[in-house]
C-alpha cells in the first residue's frame, strides 16, 4: 500500500477552483491489488479537481495501454485504453454516508484528503473488454504461434472424429428415423 500514497490528494490547503494532477500507472500499481484483471500496463492519468465550497468534482482522463491475456493463445498483448470519467465528492455529516452512490462519494467534514487510487483501479478494470483477443489472432508479434497451431490441429481432428463416429454408428440412423415419423 506504500506505493499508493502518491494517489492521495490533500484538498484542504487548495483554493476553490480547478487544480491539475498527473499520475503514472504501471505494474507496481496493479501489484497492490491482489485479484486484478489487469496485471501490467503503462497509463497516464490527468486529473482535474474542481474544488467548490460543498463538493469536489473529479474529472479523470486515463490514456495508455494495458496488457491482457489472450483468450486464444494465452499470451499477453497490449490493449489501448482511453477513459474519461467524472466523480463527485460531497462533504456531509457522518450519518449521511448512507446517501453514497456510484456517482457520489460522501466524505465527512473532518476529512482532509481523498484517495483516488481505488477509483483509478475501478475505471481501468471496467475498461477491460469482455473477450480478450488481439486484433488479428495468430498474426501479431504478441501471439504464441505454437499455441495457435496446436489449437488449429486439435480443433480440426475433433470435428473429423465426430463426423466419423456419427457416420459409422448405425444406432444414430435408427434415432433419425424416429424423429422423422
Please outline what is shown here.
The protein is of the alpha+beta class and 181 residues long.
Notes on the protein architecture:
The chain is of the alpha+beta class and 181 residues long. It folds into 2 domains: 2-126, no CATH class; 145-180. The protein is built from 4 helices and 7 strands. The chain has helices at 27-31, 117-126, 145-168, 170-180, and strands spanning 8-10, 17-25, 40-51, 55-69, 76-92, 104-108, 113-115. The strands form 2 sheets. It has a 5-stranded mixed β-sheet with strand order 2-3-4-5-6. The protein is elongated, with a radius of gyration of 26 Å. 11% of the residues are buried. The mean pLDDT is 81.
List keywords for this structure.
5-stranded mixed sheet, two-stranded antiparallel sheet, 7 strands, elongated, alpha+beta, 28% helix, 181 residues
Amino acid at each position: 500500500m506504500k506505493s499508493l500514497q502518491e494517489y492521495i490528494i490533500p484538498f484542504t490547503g487548495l483554493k476553490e477552483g480547478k487544480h491539475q494532477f498527473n499520475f503514472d500507472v504501471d505494474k507496481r500499481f496493479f501489484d497492490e491489488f491482489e485479484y486484478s484483471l489487469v496485471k501490467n500496463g503503462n497509463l497516464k492519468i490527468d486529473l482535474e479537481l474542481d474544488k467548490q465550497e460543498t463538493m469536489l468534482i473529479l474529472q479523470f482522463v486515463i490514456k495508455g495501454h494495458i496488457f491482457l491475456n489472450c483468450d486464444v493463445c494465452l499470451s499477453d498483448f497490449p490493449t489501448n485504453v482511453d477513459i474519461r470519467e467524472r466523480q463527485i465528492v460531497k462533504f456531509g455529516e457522518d450519518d449521511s454516508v448512507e446517501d453514497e452512490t456510484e456517482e457520489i462519494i460522501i466524505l465527512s467534514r473532518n476529512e482532509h484528503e481523498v484517495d483516488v487510487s481505488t477509483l483509478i483501479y475501478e475505471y481501468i478494470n471496467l475498461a477491460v473488454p469482455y473477450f480478450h483477443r488481439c486484433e488479428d489472432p495468430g498474426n501479431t508479434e504478441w501471439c504464441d504461434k505454437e499455441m495457435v497451431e496446436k489449437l488449429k490441429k486439435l480443433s480440426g481432428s475433433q470435428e473429423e472424429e465426430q463426423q466419423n463416429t456419427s457416420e459409422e454408428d448405425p444406432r444414430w440412423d435408427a434415432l433419425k428415423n424416429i424423429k422423422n415419423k
